[in-house]
């Protein structure tokens, strides 16, 4: 019998894997980039749908929650790498996650630096959840990497729900996007914006819709491809060789599949039936995790 470290697949009986963590379907925009670069990496998803959306929660509510959920899901999935596929979580809890976990943690950084470099007008917009827009981390990123560019901060919490709706099969209309587009383009300096940072992982899922209804062509930038490259780098560091194809991953959620239709939204990835891990706060008070096999 082989002894297997619960946090590692080094015994070779599990395929190399990463767990992508988010409050909802934002993990999909990151997973698509990872799958394109690393088709042999098995992807697990950790979805804290029981606390969705993250964007309007306080730092005090989110930080311990993220660390507890992501750690429990890493333990359950036996993933080799944690990818925090969520700007709201990454801009808040990366140091704590790194301290809590033995595995590498890859976080999403809003693409301020490449956007400032790409902009010809020197005016960029940063579109994100209220949490990310107001975070010290984001302010520091702009101060250190905007390279003199003017940055228009655009909180767009409604795009999070619209991305979830799109993944449930709904069509996104011009009227639904108009308020956000107005906040980007019809604001002082908005006529100069030529590059828009999609600083929430839900938003690349709406890129085509935003592009279609924007008043003029602009560059929409996100960090997905950079995350995928970072995961590839970590696999090299860990000495992990990937097989040609990925195996079936786990789909872990903190709440049953209800209104947000998690299982359907993730249908493009090979995943086992939804496993409901339960609310971490309830669990620590003695409640048993529920399982919801559909
Ligand atoms: N996808 C998340 C992000 O990148 C958060 C969305 C939310 O739950 O508010 O910020």
UniProtKB/TrEMBL annotation:
Pfam families per UniProt: Asp_Glu_race
Annotated organism of origin: Microbulbifer yueqingensis
Residue numbers binding substrate: 22-23, 54-55, 87-88, 201-202
Gene3D superfamilies documented for this protein: 3.40.50.1860
Keyword tags: Cell shape, Cell wall biogenesis/degradation, Isomerase, Peptidoglycan synthesis
Domain of life assignment: Bacteria
Catalytic reactions on record: L-glutamate = D-glutamate
PANTHER family in the cross-refs: GLUTAMATE RACEMASE
EC class: isomerase
Family matches, as PROSITE patterns: ASP_GLU_RACEMASE_1, ASP_GLU_RACEMASE_2
Function field: Provides the (R)-glutamate required for cell wall biosynthesis.
NCBIfam families reported for this sequence: glut_race
GO process annotations (BP): cell wall organization; peptidoglycan biosynthetic process; regulation of cell shape
InterPro entries: Asp/Glu/hydantoin_racemase, Asp/Glu_race, Asp/Glu_racemase_AS_1, Asp/Glu_racemase_AS_2, Glu_race
Active site (record annotation): 86, 200
Protein name according to UniProt: Glutamate racemase
EC number per UniProt: 5.1.1.3
Gene Ontology molecular function terms on file: glutamate racemase activity
Annotated family: Belongs to the aspartate/glutamate racemases family.
Pathway assigned in UniProt: Cell wall biogenesis; peptidoglycan biosynthesis
SUPFAM superfamilies the UniProt entry points to: Aspartate/glutamate racemase (SSF53681)
Membrane-crossing residue ranges in chain numbering: none
